[in-house]
Amino acid sequence: MNYGYIRVSSDKQTVENQRFEIVKYCEQEHVAINGWIEETVSGTEQYTRRRLGKLLRKMKQGDLIVCSELSRLGRTLYMIMEILSMCMKRGCRVWTIKEGYRLGDDIQSKVLAFAFGLSAEIERNLISERTREALARLKAEGKHIGRPKGSNTRQSAHLLYRHDRFIRQALRSGLSNKEIRDQLHCSRSTLHRYITRFIENDPHTSCQSNQVLVPSAL
User: Fold this and answer.
1) Which of 45, 74, 110, 176 is the most buried (most CB within 10 A)?
2) Domain count along the chain
3) Is residue 93 part of a domain?
């Protein structure tokens, strides 16, 4: 099967230019397009969540994808390399019009794939290095890195804070954690963290009434 792949980033961009290029190119190469894949989505979106991903999963050996240029497949070299690698493993071919690439199962394609792979690895290392340098510079300037201080310890920011009175009274009345979770519809870890962080060491917990209140909805 031969597929024409068209991707635009917004509705304002027309697909007709890409379609015209592919049709004209295939006529010159005496290739018939059996199906078209068109989508309006950013090239930074993971290909697995695009129509392209569905196409790649069903392609078989000998199938062909024709697109106007490599950037239609993705906006990062690493993503493009991943797509091309998948195609080569399946024995599929990818032809691009502007660059003139014909990637298949021949030695030239393997050499080109190696070059793409090396370039992608260099790009990842450079991004990682730039990230480390930026973090080191921020740290040297005295700027806080990561979550704001206190973001994990402020009781008022916790999901269960508004049920604090109910939880304290339920514990004093002998209700189990499971019974409390069933009332609050929360996970075991959420309730456990709240109790250990804000209630167990709170001297005011023992001063609560033994009457258990009905919690409001989360």
Assistant:
1) 74
2) 2
3) yes
